[in-house]
Specification:
about 110 residues, mainly alpha
Length: about 110
């Protein structure tokens, strides 16, 4: 049995209409059981976008704080360069990568 394109569309439309009615009934049953869902709240608290954005905002540093961070990082990198020129002994690091052990751990 072969159906034309129009017949297929008509059957699809009937199936969609039937499914839509089933979903409407299911939605009515859910809203009868949980009336708060009808207001669209879904049980979650909603905050305004303004309040959310304000809580996520980073604090900016003033000039004195930026200068202090700059000086601290300058000292930090100077110490790193000095440790690197010492051959890594001062930093406690060896050159090269660690290799994974080829032996299996004792069980």
């Amino acid at each position: 049995m072969s159906l034309s394109g129009e017949q297929l569309k008509a059957l699809a439309r009937q199936g969609a209409a039937q499914r839509y009615q089933e979903l409407q009934k299911e939605l009515a049953a859910l809203t009868a059981t949980f009336p708060e869902l009808a207001q669209g709240g879904g049980g979650k608290r909603r905050t305004s976008a303004k309040a959310t954005a304000a809580s996520r905002r980073r604090r900016s540093m003033n000039a004195a704080q930026r200068k202090e961070v700059s000086e601290r990082m300058t000292r930090y990198w100077a110490a790193r360069r000095a440790a690197k020129t010492d051959g890594g002994a001062a930093a406690g690091k060896s050159k090269g990568r660690r290799r994974k052990s080829t032996k299996k751990a004792a069980e």
